[in-house]
Design goal:
Layout: E1 37-42, H1 57-64, E2 71-72, E3 77-78, H2 79-82, E4 85-90, H3 98-110, E5 118-123, H4 128-139, E6 147-152, H5 172-178, E7 182-192, H6 203-207, E8 211-214, H7 215-219, H8 225-234, E9 238-244, H9 266-274, E10 280-287, H10 298-316
Parallel strand pairs: 1-4, 1-5, 5-10, 6-7, 6-9, 7-8, 9-10
Antiparallel strand pairs: 2-3
Helix pairs in contact: 1-10, 3-4, 4-5, 9-10
């Protein structure tokens, strides 16, 4: 069923309740309607290792997303005609407790709508990816070996521990792989760049078969053939997509807590997501927007459009 949206020609985008992309609240969907995607915020940043503030991102991205429109020009698809989308509000959090929060978010998200509904988490720091991946894995029948994963980031996020903490934003994927939620041999990490703390930062991912595509390696393939090949190799297998905004250069996305110089342009990031056309998505997240470092709102605005690009990929295969 198409997503009912206010008509911007008659209802201004700056008026009314602020939900992700003006999608209806989950409680406002017509009775009996099962959404294709539920979007929800996770206002949590207690897992950061540098600048805090991403807890305010869901609110800022909701505001910025009021100007996200419904028709995708390059894919030639009306996303809201193809998909039923809604905003479920924010997940419960415990700001002083990382693991307690992740477990609570996973349980709460797993209970949203029905198992056929995809989950889209909007962080928050990258630690929250663990929670949404776990909920997605559970809703997909706990597939043996784990989910395939498409990971955009400047950092691998496979550090075992920082400051005696195993559940921070540097560690979601080592935890997911250890627990069998993610299949490392069906995982690609795109945009990784240095400097690193040590060469060993690469060891876990390399040992477990994660494909690492550095920023410089990606630049040598401007048609993003490595992504198209990854999608082709997946075939009908579904993949989870996680997008850390710091994969984009701080010149284009300054509002993030762990900026990394030399990243992708905003256009390159949009183009890479479009290169994934044909992928079948199991779930997704967008994370690490820090509104306090984003005075003009350009990072939140870009993150909102990254959300739309991910949803458009699913609309293309419906």
């Amino acid at each position: 069923m198409p997503t009912p949206l206010p008509n911007p020609r008659t209802t201004p985008r700056f008026a009314g309740l602020t939900t992700f992309c003006r999608y209806p609240r989950i409680e406002d969907l017509a009775q009996g309607i099962t959404p294709d995607w539920v979007l929800y915020g996770v206002p949590f940043d207690s897992g950061v290792t540098y600048r805090p503030g991403a807890r305010f991102a869901p609110r800022a991205i909701r505001e910025a997303s009021q100007y996200v429109k419904r028709f995708h020009l390059e894919h030639n698809v009306d996303v809201c005609d193809k998909l039923t989308l809604c905003d479920a509000g924010d997940a419960p959090i415990s700001p002083y407790h990382i693991k307690e929060t992740l477990d609570a978010v996973a349980k709460w998200a797993d209970g949203l709508s029905t198992p056929s509904t995809r989950l889209f988490a909007v962080g928050g720091d990258h630690s929250i990816a663990y929670a949404n991946i776990k909920a997605t894995w559970q809703r997909h029948g706990k597939p043996k070996g784990g989910l395939a994963l498409i990971h955009f980031d400047s950092h691998l996020d496979t550090v075992d521990m920082v400051w005696s903490e195993k559940w921070g934003h540097a560690s979601p994927f080592i935890r997911c792989i250890e627990e069998g939620l993610v299949d490392p041999k069906a995982m690609i990490s795109v945009g990784i760049k240095g400097p690193l703390n040590a060469a060993d930062d690469l060891a876990f991912a390399q040992k477990h078969g994660v494909r690492i595509v550095t920023r410089d390696a990606a630049a040598k393939d401007p048609s993003w053939g490595f992504l198209k090949d990854f999608v082709k190799a997946l075939g009908p297998r579904e993949a989870y997509l996680t997008f850390d905004i710091d994969v984009i250069d701080p010149a284009f996305a300054p509002g993030t807590g762990t900026p990394s110089a030399g990243g992708f342009t905003s256009h390159e990031a949009l183009s890479m997501l479009r290169a994934l056309r044909g992928v079948r998505l199991a779930g997704a997240d967008v994370v690490e927007v820090l509104p306090d470092r984003d005075p003009a709102g350009i990072t939140s605005f870009l993150a909102a459009h990254m959300m739309f690009e991910v949803l458009a990929l699913d609309a293309c295969v419906r």
